[in-house]
Amino acid sequence: MQRRSILSLPAGLLFLLPAGAFVFVFIILPFFWIAAVSFTNRTLTGRTALNPEFVGLANYRRLFDPDRFFNSGEFGASLILTGQFVFFSAILGQAILGLLLAWFFYNHRGWVQSTVQTLAIVAWIMPDVVVAFAWFAFLDRDDGTLNQILSAIGLGHPDWLLALPMVSIIMFNIWRGTAFSMLLFSSALGSIPPSHLETASVAGATGLQKLRDIILPLIRTHIITVLILITLWTFNTFTPFLLTGGGPAFQTEVVSIYTYRTAFQFFRFGMGGAVGMVMMIINLAFAIVYLGILRSQKAHA
Amino acid sequence: MAGVAFRGVSKSFGAVTAVDDVSFDIHDGEIVCLLGPSGCGKTTTLRLIAGLEGPTAGSIHIGDRDVTMISPKGRDIGMVFQDYALYPHMTISDNISYPLKVRGVSKEERASRAAEVAASLQIGNLLERRPGQISGGQQQRTSVARAVVHKPQVFLFDEPLSNLDAKLRLEARGFIKHLQKRLGVTSIYVTHDQAEAMALADRIAVMDGGRIVQMAPPLEVYHRPANTFVANFLGSPPMNLLPVRLERRTGVTRFVADAFTITAEGWHERLQGRVDDGESVILGVRPEHLALGEADDPWSFPGELYATEPLGPETLITISVGDALTTLRIFGDDPPVVDGRVHARIQNTNLRLFREGGERIELG
Amino acid sequence: MNHHARFILGRIFFYAGACLFASFFVLPLLWLTVAPFNTLATLSLSLPEEFSLANFRRVFANTFAIRALVQNSVLQAGGAMVLVTITATLAAYALSRSSIKGTDVITYGLVLFSSVVTGTAAMVPIFLMIHGMGLIDTHVAVILVFTGGLLPAAIFIMRDFVDSIPRSYEESALVAGASPWRVFNDIALPIVRPGMMVIAVWAFVNVWGGFLIPFILLRSSGKMPAAVAIYSFYSEAGTPLVTLTAAYSLLYTLPVLLLYLFVNWKYGFRFFGGIKS
Ligand SMILES: Nc1ncnc2c1ncn2[C@@H]1O[C@H](COP(=O)(O)OP(=O)(O)OP(=O)(O)O)[C@@H](O)[C@H]1O
Ligand SMILES: [Mg+2]
């Protein structure tokens, strides 16, 4: 007997068993299953539902078919839309707004700060369909609150969801998800010893210089964490579907919606599996980068 | 009541050997302090006794039982943790009586025994509070109460006072010693505070690198350290250690260093057959066994004054001898006035000699 | 500029900025908080002529939607909450306290897998698996799939929590003579309870608001949760009956807000990396 622990090995394994079973069935199995399905022509009904045929790379060839890859409503176009959506709503929008909010309230903890923070969190935790409905009303061309304000100050009233659908879902996603960046950045800022900033103030640095020279370098790893996590989440979010359904004319069909349409509109699971597989590979790339950072953070701590 | 014994006990964590082939006997009713620098294996030794770790080799005995393979539950031990480990969700009364609860003692008896122990530790008025609502000193007493309530065979303490401020620490130290003597329970007490060890222990076990280098009563450890490590670890400031070379001529022995020569007057016969001519040895002398002396005194050596620190009842005078520092402790209310070149005289009855490797040379 | 004027200017700037941020988050929701109480509401933001609960009365008359809310959503979110909380707590405790080798690798592997196999990316195999198990159109299917999806993050958060609890609590109980089961039950469980509460609320809120999983796994209208049933207030053409949808939205959101307030009041909003998946 070498090592005693609070929980014995058999008890530990017993404790892990239920969670392990869930994770195996619903996380690990799908990962390999999707790879298998993506090489078949599996459908929901009909002959290929029971006896799907192995079709090799046909699904992938169809996805990446250079003749139509970038056509509207095709995979390439969807990837480009997703890239725009992620870049503008997550990286530029949520991260910068979150940092701005955290910085703005850094020295002003109090009821004003906690009110704004609570409002951001409410936007973050409300059910998907409710926020989608709220935004549907907010963006309405004739009566929506946004256009009421805009026309009151003489800025016209565009038909957001029809004329500017991508802008709409980007605004929507910034609004929806900024709370995460804000919270993580404020806790990162909170962990900076005040003496660091005081030293800089004494040395005569302006607010912007302090942000650039002291704060940003100190919270670098937090910034990377935020960027990667919100990128992953935004890449995988299905919520824009509830606002635009991917339209009009595929203009907001990000890959999550594209997957849904491929797999469930015509129940072509082989194709849907191939799209899901590509999504997972992209996710994997992000996750590996993130894990590396997480580990090196832990090693430094 | 029962003693505790280790027989060749080792404990490794991967490549780290935390306890290295340790054997000892702690007698019934004795209090032993484990003393040593950070990472020397004190906590691990204690956890081996408690059964929270299993040894890699060797056997552990409590009373006449071999408990090596027995879980903590079967060892009948009371332990005070460094962070007290009071359960935040239980009242002080429930905390204290938890060992009784797991032994199936009835609710009424638990409450009355908890109250009794708490009263004897002067925390009787806190029984309904939660650990978060009492002070550090009170938490410490609660934790002691929980360790003694079921009248265990052995008490274990892991630096129980290190989270208290200096004044409370002194108070709690006296109280632990009093309690231990009153209950007469075999106790093992881990500390890295040598004053605490000196004050509490019947015997001190000094540990270094997973081994016990000396286990003896406090004054013996202080005055007759087994090696230079112990000499250096105990005492504040520690024992002065002066490396010298021994020169034996007919009828006279000298200790020679680059910066000085000491004539070991009256020691020629004494060193006969114990130290060879030309051998390098280390002189060990406690600061209080050095006095200000004259240049022509054979037992004195010169140095340059480095610092004078008046402490009230005593004064520390540090001099630089060659490239090393040596400290003198001079008792008396008035700090002596010294300057420039100082001569330190060794009270040779209290001089210790160590071999170059560190172990003390037994002199007749 | 003198010091005093600068201070006042700074204050003005601060409150103006705070108002701007606050309105960014509030404006999209403003209409939704007013419309349910206005029987004649259109999409335009205006205070009701008279404050009325008639919309709610009509919503309650829609038994299908109400059943979705108080039965199906509660059942699915509650079921997943219980499963996630119990299994995540047991697993996190084992990962933190047992002698199982490589628990760090397991934990990070879990996080890796779960961020790769998201609900959207894995909708095809999840659907096919549930189909294969014959569980399509059952509450169990929704509960199981949500539990599987939420577990990795729950275990990660919970393990952090258990790791932060000193082992000396349990060790002192062991030395006091408690059996391993007693240690878990008397000491460990009460101490990790706040963590379990947070996980429970988090899991509940996630399932409560989730749309995609019930949308693809359920068929019969009698089993739909509120997230899907809300579309019963939409016309065939897909345009909502705004008054009723708004009232229903408010009812549907209320538990989430209350739970948030509860957690915030009881534990403070503890911030775990990625508490919301
Ligand atoms: N669970 C463990 N895993 C790995 N190494 C350990 C473990 N416990 C202790 N060690 C190592 O064993 C050695 C002895 O540790 P121990 O805690 O017994 O020291 P200590 O004398 O109590 O020190 P301190 O005064 O700092 O408390 C150290 O090098 C420590 O790093
Ligand atoms: Mg220790």
Give a verbal description of the structure.
The complex is a heterotrimer of chains A (301), B (364) and C (277). The mean pLDDT of chain A is 83. Chain A has a single domain (69-300), classed as Orthogonal Bundle (MetI-like fold), CATH 1.10.3720.10. Chain A starts with 8 loop residues before the first helix and ends with a helix. Helices cover 73% and strands 0% of the residues of chain A. Chain A has 301 residues and is mainly α. Chain B is an alpha+beta fold. Chain B contains nine helices and 20 strands. In chain B, strands 6-7-8-3-9-10 form a six-stranded mixed sheet, sandwiched between helices. In chain B, α2 (92-101) packs across α3 (107-120). The two termini of chain B are 39 Å apart. The mean pLDDT of chain B is 90. With 277 residues, chain C is mainly alpha-helical. Chain C is built from eleven helices and no strands. Chain C has helices at 3-34, 54-61, 63-97, 103-116, 123-132, 139-163, 168-176, 180-209, 212-217, 226-229, 242-267. Chain C starts with a helix and ends in a 10-residue tail after the last helix. The chains are: A mainly alpha (301), B alpha+beta (364), C mainly alpha (277). At the A-C interface, α1, α5, α6, α7 and α9 of A face α1, α3, α4, α5 and α6 of C. The complex binds adenosine-5'-triphosphate and magnesium ion. Adenosine-5'-triphosphate (ATP) binds next to β2 and α1 of chain B.
Task: Kindly summarize this structure in a few lines.
By secondary structure, chain B is of the alpha+beta class. Chain B has nine helices and 20 strands. Chain C contains eleven helices and no strands.
Please give a handful of descriptors for the protein shown.
heterotrimer, A: 301 residues, mainly alpha, MetI-like fold, 73% helix, globular, C: mainly alpha, 0% strand, binds adenosine-5'-triphosphate, binds magnesium ion
Question: Topology of this protein?
Answer:
The complex is a heterotrimer of chains A (301), B (364) and C (277).
Chain A: H1 9-37, H2 47-50, H3 58-63, H4 75-104, H5 111-125, H6 128-138, H7 145-152, H8 160-163, H9 165-190, H10 194-202, H11 207-218, H12 220-236, H13 240-244, H14 255-265, H15 269-300
Chain B: E1 4-13, E2 16-26, E3 31-35, H1 42-50, E4 57-62, E5 65-66, E6 77-80, H2 92-101, H3 107-120, H4 136-148, E7 154-158, H5 166-183, E8 186-191, H6 194-200, E9 203-208, E10 211-216, H7 218-223, H8 228-233, E11 240-249, E12 252-256, E13 261-263, H9 268-271, E14 280-285, E15 290-292, E16 300-310, E17 314-321, E18 324-331, E19 341-346, E20 352-355
Parallel strand pairs in B: 3-8, 3-9, 6-7, 7-8
Antiparallel strand pairs in B: 1-2, 1-4, 4-5, 9-10, 11-12, 11-14, 12-13, 14-20, 15-19, 16-17, 16-19, 17-18
Helix pairs in contact in B: 2-3, 2-4
Chain C: H1 3-34, H2 54-61, H3 63-97, H4 103-116, H5 123-132, H6 139-163, H7 168-176, H8 180-209, H9 212-217, H10 226-229, H11 242-267
Helix pairs in contact in C: 2-11, 3-6, 3-8, 4-6, 6-8, 7-8, 8-11
The structure holds adenosine-5'-triphosphate and magnesium ion (MG).
